[in-house]
Amino acid sequence: MLVDTGANVTLLRTDLAQKLQEQLIYTAPNISLKTDTGEKTEIRGKLDASIECGSRKFHHRIYVADITDPCILGLDFLQKFNFTVDLEKNEIRTGGEEIPLFSASVQHSKSCSVLVKKRTIIPARSECLIQGIPEVPGQFRYAVTDFHSQVPQKGVLVAATLVDLEKEAIPVRVLNLNNTPKILDKGAVIATCEPVVDIVARPQEFSEAQHLSSILESLEMLNEKQRRE
Questions:
Q1: pLDDT tens digit string along 126-135?
Q2: From the CB of residue 109, how many other CB atoms can be counted at a distance below 10 Å?
Q3: Among candidates 10, 14, 123, 130, which has minimal Cα distance to 67?
Q4: Which of 48, 61, 144, 182 could, after both became Cys, cross-link 122 (CB 3.0–4.6 A)?
Q5: Distance CA 141, CA 102 (A)
């Protein structure tokens, strides 16, 4: 799915729309639109559909055309449901929910290795965070670090962690099961990074202040009950 603030309407690719024949309303072939490359393509129909974006579903009218992407969220959708586009943070927001955006190439990116940023000694039978860097920076922003199966570190485990590769260093949680310290030299492969293409940050159901107030109220009720007993 592509978010395009330059598109006036929301579009669905023709082959996908044909699977929803009962909802599809065909339009006259004299209606066309101009793509960002200057080419013209015909609007083949329209339908009312439910679009899942983040943790919510939005009911919206979509136009059908021969486009490359499966779906293009246009300006009409963003304005109707009060979406805010934050290009600096590379995300869209609505109703307190933050939905990260990714470049179209992310889904086709392969995993990359994580290298030790500086020489580190992990004490025997202990767990610690070490600093890592991506072997090939700039492939994607968000990733999950995990154990690198092709470069086994005997007696060393790596925790799966969601990381932001735009940070100066990648935090890698490592567990040394050996009875002796483990030395990781600078540049050694310690983990792998798998690209993440969808992150949903759900809004808190209640604030910390409300939560604290609820706890205190429960304690007061408990103390009153104890006094009666």
A1: 999 999 999 8
A2: 17
A3: 14
A4: 182
A5: 8
Structure tokens at 98: 């933050």
Query: Which token pair is 19?
Result: 């699977």
pLDDT tens column, 159-204? 888 888 888 898 999 999 999 999 999 998 889 888 875 554 444 4
Residues of the chain with CATH 2.70.40.10: 112-195
Please tell me the distance from the alpha carbon of residue 91 to that of residue 101, in angstroms, as a whole number.
Answer: 5
Q: Tell which CATH classification among 1.10.760.10, 1.10.10.10, 2.70.40.10, 3.30.70.3040 matches the domain 112-195.
A: 2.70.40.10
Q: Which amino acid is at 64?
A: V
